[in-house]
Amino acid sequence: MTCPCTLAVLAAGWSALAYFSYKLLNALYNILYPFAIAAPKDLKKLAGGAKWAVVTGSTDGIGKSYAVELARRGFNIVLISRTQSKLDEVKQEILQKTPNVEVRTISFDFTNANLADYEEKIVKQLNGVDVGVLVNNVGMSFEYPDRFDKISGGTKSLTDITVINTVPVTVLTAEILKQMVPRNAGVIINLASAASYHQMRYWSIYSATKKFVTHLTHILSKEFDKTGIVFQVVCPMLVATKMSKAKAAFFSPGPEAFVKQALRSVGHVSETTGCLSHELQANVFALPGLLIDSVMDKGNLAIRNRALKKKEAKKE
Ligand SMILES: NC(=O)c1ccc[n+]([C@@H]2O[C@H](COP(=O)([O-])OP(=O)(O)OC[C@H]3O[C@@H](n4cnc5c(N)ncnc54)[C@H](OP(=O)(O)O)[C@@H]3O)[C@@H](O)[C@H]2O)c1
Fold first, then answer.
1. b/e per residue 86-104 (b: at least 16 CB within 10 A)
2. pLDDT confidence of 116, banded at 50, 70, 90?
């Protein structure tokens, strides 16, 4: 007869093997399925035939790339961003690349959380178009990481980041759902960040507001799971844009390459880092929980020290 101790050890061994096999299969699925195996879904079909896509923060980086790529797939585009001259430039660029689509622009500063202004400047214009895809991309980060009480720009910066990263996604999703629900179709893509995966020291409000976006998107996916509306939250690591100041490389793709991959995954996964190299980082090269804080602290403090030195040098 096998002794109970041996049975317990065997059970623990099999449980561990089952757990690690599940983790491995899950990682492989996340890395390969949406970006290399699954056939991209027809976004026009998911949009239920609606002809327009709305992208916030669409004059640069990831948002601009979503706008260009969605126009390439035949959607008319509403660009919503802060600076009218940049909106005009991006509109011309899209029309040159895809002359068959229509492009409209709305200039709005998303640090403004006033609902009457949203209604007057955005909602009224959007009520006149059938929106099949909404990309809630606009977002803001710190100039450099630092402790909460020392953030560059102080309370104003903390408030602006909180507003930009949470209010537009809330208001625009609520408004656009009013037309997607009766149509029983549509795609809503929300840009969060891998910063939402951890309670990131020195990125307080950025990390916390991105967690808000992730959490909200998952809740909406559940609330609308009996409808044809598709929600996706995208949690990138580094993408080479003005915000990140990163150079384009395998692990920090340029926004165009990033968005092409991210759009491939729509309708297949409700949460993604957005591209294969970021999924590799999240699933294979992820640090064990205990190490994350210390490794990230070192990196973040180095970024902060370099930024402070630059600031000092400018003053002299
Ligand atoms: N880049 C990354 O590594 C990374 C990683 C994770 C998550 N993300 C998220 O991805 C999204 C896009 O980031 P990105 O790197 O592409 O940013 P980006 O290159 O800095 O572009 C930001 C865009 O947002 C617009 N914008 C900024 N402040 C605004 C305001 N107050 N009102 C209206 N529009 C405003 C900018 O318009 P103007 O031209 O007028 O400034 C620009 O079009 C953000 O939500 C960000 O948190 C980025």
1. bbeebbeebeeebeebebb
2. very high
